[in-house]
Design brief:
The complex is a heterodimer of chains A (113) and B (115). Chain A contains no helices and twelve strands. With 113 residues, chain A is mainly β. In chain A, the strands form three sheets. In chain A, strands 2, 5, 6, 10, 11 and 12 form a six-stranded mixed beta sheet that branches. A four-stranded antiparallel beta sheet of chain A has the order 3-9-8-7, with no helix packed on it. Helix content of chain B is 0%, strand content 60%. Chain B contains no helices and 13 strands. Chain B is globular. Classes of the chains: A mainly beta (113), B mainly beta (115). Chains A and B meet through strand 5, strand 6, strand 10 and strand 11 of A and strand 5, strand 9, strand 11 and strand 12 of B.
Chain lengths: 113, 115
């Protein structure tokens, strides 16, 4: 079945450091891939997405490229800020499964000044 | 922001009592979902709906039931709450975008404590 595996946390970085959060997936068809972010006490919100191979999603300085050959969708940011402290979730969805979404377990990021 | 309202936002109840959480959307999206979020487990799907009166089980459906009598409302019921159902519950909605799934939009969550 479909599944998502993402890097275990927690991750602690200094401000302006480079961020990578790894995400790999297993899917039977042609999924769409997503990164969601959850700030403390809030619901999840979409950070970026990609719907086909080699697409790059980007938002707020974050980027992720849909790599079908390595079944990966790693999240990167060149220079993190304290305000990026949150939990990040990788997810996939396949229309063949009736719009079901599969989430990774989340990676907690803390950015210190 | 997507128009999703969850109620109640916070509830404390006792073991054995019934509990109903409500999700209301104003986006006319076809798909609606209930997830629970627990430390170390991420998000786990309880039930989802792909249309009025059309629902299916997710990975952690035991002890939960759902109903969707209108497009805009998706109810989650715990018939007899247990302490293991203490969690934060999120409602979400989505819609198809051509051949692809659209993104999920989440409500703000309902924190349930079962004593």
């Amino acid at each position: 079945g479909d599944s998502v595996t993402q890097m275990e946390g927690p991750v602690t970085l200094s401000e302006e450091a480079f961020l990578t959060i790894n995400c790999t997936y297993t899917a039977t068809g042609y999924p769409s891939l997503f990164w969601y972010v959850q700030y403390p006490g809030e619901g999840l919100q979409l950070l970026l997405k990609a719907t086909k191979a080699d697409d790059k999603g980007s938002n707020k300085g974050f980027e992720a490229t849909y790599r079908k050959e390595t079944t990966s969708f790693h999240l990167e940011k060149g220079s993190v800020q304290v305000s990026d402290s949150a939990v990040y979730f990788c997810a996939l969805s396949e229309p063949l499964t009736g719009n079901q979404f599969y989430f990774g377990t989340g990676t907690s990021l803390t950015v210190i000044p | 922001d997507a128009g999703i309202t969850q109620s109640p936002r916070h509830k404390v109840t006792e073991t054995g009592t019934p509990v109903t959480l409500r999700c209301h959307q104003t986006e006319n999206h076809r798909y609606m979902y209930w997830y629970r979020q627990d430390p170390g487990h991420g998000l786990r799907l309880i039930h989802y709906s792909y249309g009025v009166k059309d629902t299916d089980k997710g990975e952690v459906s035991d002890g939960y039931s759902v109903s969707r009598s209108k497009t805009e409302d998706f109810l989650l019921t715990l018939e007899s709450a247990t302490s293991s159902q203490t969690s934060v519950y999120f409602c979400a909605i989505s819609e198809r975008r051509g051949q692809n799934t659209g993104e999920l939009f989440f409500g703000e969550g309902s924190r349930l404590t079962v004593l």
